[in-house]
Amino acid sequence: MDATIAERPSGAGSPPAIKPTRRRSLRSRIASCWLHLVLIPVGLLWISPLAWIVLTSLKTKIEVFDPEAGFLPAALNFANYPATLAVAPFGTYLINSILVTGSILIGQLITITLAAYAFARMEFPFKKILFTLFLLQVMFPIYAIFLTNFVTLHEFGLINTLPAMIVPFVASGYGTFMLRQSFRQVPAELSDAARLDGCGHLEILWHVFLPLVQPTLIAFTIISVVTHWNDYMWPLLVTNSDDVRTLPIGLGLLAKSDSGADWTRLMAGTTIVVSPLLLFFVIFQRRFIDSFMHTGVK
Amino acid sequence: MKSTKSNISRRALLKVGLAAPFVSALPGVISIARAAGPTKLQFMYPVGVSGDINKIISGMIADFNAQHEGIEVEAIYAGSYDNTEQKVITSIGVDTPPALWLPINSALQTFLGLDALEDITEQAKADDIYDDFLPGFLNTCISDDRLYGLPYQPSTPVLYYNKDAFAQAGLEKAPDTWDELLETAKATTLRENGELKRWGLTIGGGWHDWMFEGYCRQNGLVPWQKDKVLFDRPEAVEALQFWFKMVQEGVMPKASTWQGSANDFMAGSTAMLYHSTGSLTNLRTSSPFEVGVAFMPKKKTYGAAQGGGPLMIAKKQSDAKKEAAWTFARWMTNTENQANWSRATGYLAVRKSSWQSPAMQSYLEDVPQAKVALDQSEFAGAFLQVPGYHRVREFLKSALDRTLAGEIEAATALGEANSNANREIARVMRRRKS
């Protein structure tokens, strides 16, 4: 996503840059053109693997490795898509992926906001120790706690259900830490003023803090969605049946260890898996960028 | 009011409790109960070769469930071999192992160490397993003369070659000995103005330790025993020196990756390739030239290490489940199913009778390359069945890589790998005892 994010400032970001300096419009135009000269190749570089994925998904198996064959497929061969969809129920996987990633995100946003507010703005016993424990959770590689998480879920009877992929991730030490740092940067005067106006903790959080830390929330959303959308090992471990599995497991069926990958179908599958994410970012791109542009309040 | 209620329910409970033994003693009731609740088996399997293995397995299991009243198998795709092993071991950790699973044969000692495997020697002896299964494959499931699994999808490495590249170099025949291999690799390596266009030979990386065991076996050494490895023996050192020589002569790359090497072969950037028989279908159908398949060349003898996996049955489950699991494993490896499985995937059928079946005979006429792996399997044995084989493989691979990169002498590298590996094996065994 780097380039799309980088590309926007030249478009959306230029009006505020030009406004105060209208007399230097020539210089700024040169500056923005120069920026385009840099950004267009970078943008192309970013888009090239995606283009390659789509093109490969339209080729025949032999074309992929034939040195004589060109970069573009000789004939558009859409047969790879139905062939990919026949390998596994990708529709079910897609719905499950959306449910799992969405539920994790909602859960995380609630827990990290509350926890971060407590750590940033409240005093209570053992605060430092508790926060250190939160940080410790960030440092543990997820693989180290696979077995204990598995045992817990097994005792809850949650193995092979959608909640098994959601429950272990609804709290995030990393997100709490990130948000606590942002909350601490919000001037105390703002929350004090809100308290004088009669706001309770939750109202202060809702009306004062959350609007001001939107960029952090969005950054965290991106990280969380990408991580859990692509997660492979944990869903594979806790699910058994097709109706609760997620998209990366379907992709795993096409990348084989014994025989080398089935490239055409793997690329068709990859296109299917990444397009919802891409669509999500394209649709919300303006919101993402806008919130990053309005980070000035401090 | 409250107390009356609880009294009634207690009485009802007692009545039911009294009736239970009598009811269950009635034969008719039992069979009805069974029909209502079939024995449910979980079967975890990896998908190691591309193609629609997932579909094939699901289809086979649907057939099995339809044919066997009272048994219901649930097929659980569990990723790669490594993923499957992790998933199975995790389930064993919470005392709910799947009824059966399909690991790589190297994991035999790992699962025996967990005391997780049902000994099926007696059932197998009462059946035709010892007569009809190809002994090379069956041996991969035997430890101390006891049988712990039924081979299901064995594979070995074979030598693939590009017939166009061979014709270009004026060659007709695949190399048969190490010396011929070097000569052929020299003849088929292509350089234009000092720039490399085609390697003579590539050994599929990532699994090159598997190929290396083949080289040791070709040189008359099985480089492991049940509780130690023998990487520092002169036969092994000589094999690695031969690899290094091919690198020095500029006919073989120092390193490659598993998928990358297959891609290189299909793209014509290497004339010969050591890869799994499991790749046969993919290489054959994706290459724009004719693909030849041959034995891996010999030194003292032909030799190969068996890849692929057996069906293993869990020890910690009810007898009814064990019996059902045996029925299922037996069915999956019957003559007809093995012939179909082999033709669909490129894995080798485990039964002699499968190979003699008419369907298989006509397949061999269409794809004579498939026969090569079967013939070679006569010279093949189990692959690195030592405890803690994951780490041991990494030690060996590191020794091979560093030698080929020219960082270290073959003998020193293998000596180090040997002592590291044996220390690791001793550690795993010590932990198992305590």
Automatic annotation (TrEMBL), chain A:
The chain crosses the membrane at residues 33-55, 93-117, 129-151, 157-177, 204-226, 263-284. GO terms for biological process: transmembrane transport. It comes from the Bacteria. It is found in: Cell membrane. The keyword Cytoplasm does not apply. Pfam families: BPD_transp_1. Keywords: Cell membrane, Membrane, Transmembrane, Transmembrane helix, Transport. InterPro entries: MetI-like, MetI-like_sf. One of its GO terms (cellular component) is plasma membrane. PROSITE patterns: ABC_TM1 (PS50928). Coiled coil: none annotated. It is a multi-pass membrane protein. Residues 1-20 are annotated as: Disordered. Residues 94-284 form the ABC transmembrane type-1 domain. Belongs to the binding-protein-dependent transport system permease family. This is sn-glycerol 3-phosphate transport system permease protein.
UniProtKB/TrEMBL annotation, chain B:
CDD domains: PBP2_UgpB. It comes from the Bacteria. InterPro entries: Bact_solute-bd_prot1, SBP, TAT_signal. The keyword Transmembrane helix does not apply. Keywords: Periplasm. Coiled coil: none annotated. Pfam families: SBP_bac_8. It is found in: Periplasm. GO terms for cellular component: periplasmic space. PANTHER family: ARABINOSE-BINDING PROTEIN-RELATED (PTHR43649), DIACETYLCHITOBIOSE BINDING PROTEIN DASA (PTHR43649:SF12). Belongs to the bacterial solute-binding protein 1 family. This is Carbohydrate ABC transporter substrate-binding protein (CUT1 family). It comes from Breoghania corrubedonensis. The lineage of its organism: Bacteria, Pseudomonadati, Pseudomonadota, Alphaproteobacteria, Hyphomicrobiales.
